[in-house]
Specification:
2 domains; membrane; transmembrane; transport; MetI-like fold; about 325 residues; two-stranded antiparallel ribbon; MetI-like
């Protein structure tokens, strides 16, 4: 199997342009807002910042009024290429990259695993339900769809009330026990698993219905295709027809949705992290917005945007591998 050069080149050009546009918007957006990070920081300090310190802060954050917007833009790119995302006002002027890095593993571990489990379980279940259309398995669709329509914060609060307060099976909040510090030990890993189980299960239950319904509907469309009839007429085993022919083609639209879900994993689930007081990127973004910490907001928006782009690149490659028509059309 060969993927045409024109297909690869067109994708590379498109995503490079998209990345440039996202970074450029990320540069201009704070400068279009009322005020700026340095002014907001000075207001919090209540006059304790001298004019010399203010000038130094403006240079540090690339907001030097003595330089033109074009010069600031070039310096912004230079800082990005050196991996410098600025300093966070709400975290004692700590590097934004370090602040994000402290929250990113929690979000990737929790939301990432829950998303992959939900997609895999939902796609496989939807394929089986679609294959056995008209059977008792169809009852799964309205049940899971109902849970998907329940507002997430209600689902989270109900889960905490039932499984934490009444049954006492899971901790109600935080990523690990109070008084503990992150360390690579079996006890700490056990705490992380116990604290992450309930929010992870809640995410899976809330998103499962969409994957099941989407895959089932695509399976119903694919099963009417001629190649499925031919495969069955040849006497191929039902399992092979289901997974090698029907499900493989039916899941193609699922990949696009999964790519977006994977990309937004980095952004976390803000409502979930608020309900469970989980120290992820979503809660950090909310805290940064509340504190008007523009550098941290910029860094988070940039990381989320790049994650979505990378996820879409992976989806395009997978799409081209699974469906030759895609790369032929692009070529």
């Amino acid at each position: 199997m060969k993927i045409p050069f024109r297909f690869i080149a067109s994708r590379v050009v498109f995503y490079l342009f998209t990345a440039w546009a996202a970074i450029t918007i990320n540069f201009f957006l704070p400068r279009m807002m009322k005020g700026d990070p340095v002014t907001a920081y000075m207001q919090k300090q209540a006059g304790r910042i001298t004019p010399e310190a203010e000038h130094a802060l403006r240079i540090l954050f690339g907001l030097d009024k003595d330089k033109s917007l074009g010069q600031q833009y070039l310096e912004y790119w230079q800082l990005l290429l050196n991996g410098d995302l600025g300093r966070s006002f709400s975290n004692g002027l700590a590097p934004v990259g370090d602040v994000i890095a402290s929250a990113l593993p929690w979000t990737l571990g929790l939301v990432g695993i829950a998303t992959v489990v939900s997609f895999t379980l939902g796609t496989a279940t939807g394929a089986i339900i679609g294959w056995r259309r008209g059977s008792r398995a169809d009852v799964i669709v309205p049940i899971t769809t109902f849970f998907s329509t329940v507002p997430y914060f209600w689902l989270g609060l109900i889960a905490i009330a039932v499984f934490s307060s009444i049954l006492g099976w899971f901790p109600a909040s935080h990523a690990y026990g109070k008084g503990s510090s992150p360390e690579f030990t079996l006890d700490f890993i056990g705490q992380v698993v116990a604290h992450g189980a309930l929010p992870a299960i809640t995410i899976v239950v809330a998103s499962l219905g969409g994957w099941i319904l989407g895959m089932r509907n695509m399976m119903l469309t694919v099963l009417d295709e001629d190649y499925i009839t031919v495969a069955q007429a040849k006497g191929l085993p039902n399992g092979r027809v289901l997974w090698r022919y029907a499900a493989r083609n039916a899941m193609l639209p699922q990949l696009s949705s999964f790519a977006l879900s994977i990309g937004f994993i980095v952004g976390g689930t803000i409502v979930m992290e608020m309900v469970f007081s989980y120290p992820g990127v979503g809660k950090m973004l909310l805290d940064a917005t509340t504190a008007k910490d523009y550098p941290l907001m910029q860094g988070l928006f940039l990381i989320i945007t790049m994650a979505v782009l990378c996820a879409n690149i992976i989806a395009d490659i997978a799409y081209a591998i699974l469906d030759p028509r895609t790369r032929q059309t692009e070529a």
